[in-house]
Amino acid sequence: MHVSVVGNTDDSVVVTVRGNLDIDSGTSLTTTLDQVLDRPAPRIVVDLSGIEFCDSTGLSALVIGHNRAAANGGWLRLAAPGEFLERLLDTVGLTPRLAVYPTVGDALTGRSAD
């Protein structure tokens, strides 16, 4: 798995994740999210377009990140999940709880596809 971070001029951050998000690689995402969440009112978009597989470890990292961002007056939004991950988020009941957007741009602006 590969994780990269890009900061934007408006202080939002895009965390891009590629590969498998599972028990073997989830620590990389958790460590990265810990770093970007350690600021006041964090605004984070997690680009999931490159995720091929995700297990409960990956889902947990996303939920914990969302909770921490909200507790600090910010947000964590998910962007561009593939069909597998979108179905998984829906099946486990996370889509009503986590903000999921079709693109990174939509997630940055908060525009829904509806």
Secondary structural class:
alpha/beta
Rg (CA only): 13 Å
Within the CATH hierarchy, at the fold level, what is the topology?
Transcription Regulator spoIIAA
- CATH-derived architecture: 2-Layer Sandwich
The main β sheet shows up as: 5 strands, mixed
CATH first level: which class?
Alpha Beta
SSE arrangement, N to C: EEHEHEHEH
Low-confidence stretches: none
Average pLDDT confidence is: 93
Given the structure, what is the number of helices?
A: 4
Note the topology:
Layout: E1 2-7, E2 13-21, H1 26-37, E3 43-54, H2 56-71, E4 75-79, H3 83-91, E5 99-101, H4 104-109
Question: What does the model show?
Answer:
By secondary structure, the chain is α/β, with parallel strands linked by helices. 38% of the residues lie in helices and 31% in strands. It has helices spanning 26-37, 56-71, 83-91, 104-109, and strands at 2-7, 13-21, 43-54, 75-79, 99-101. A five-stranded mixed beta sheet has the order 1-2-3-4-5, sandwiched between helices. The chain is globular. The mean pLDDT is 93.
How would you sum up this structure in a few lines?
The chain is 38% helix and 31% strand. It is built from 4 helices and 5 strands. The chain has helices at residues 26-37, 56-71, 83-91, 104-109; strands at 2-7, 13-21, 43-54, 75-79, 99-101.
Features:
single chain; globular; 31% strand; 114 residues; alpha/beta
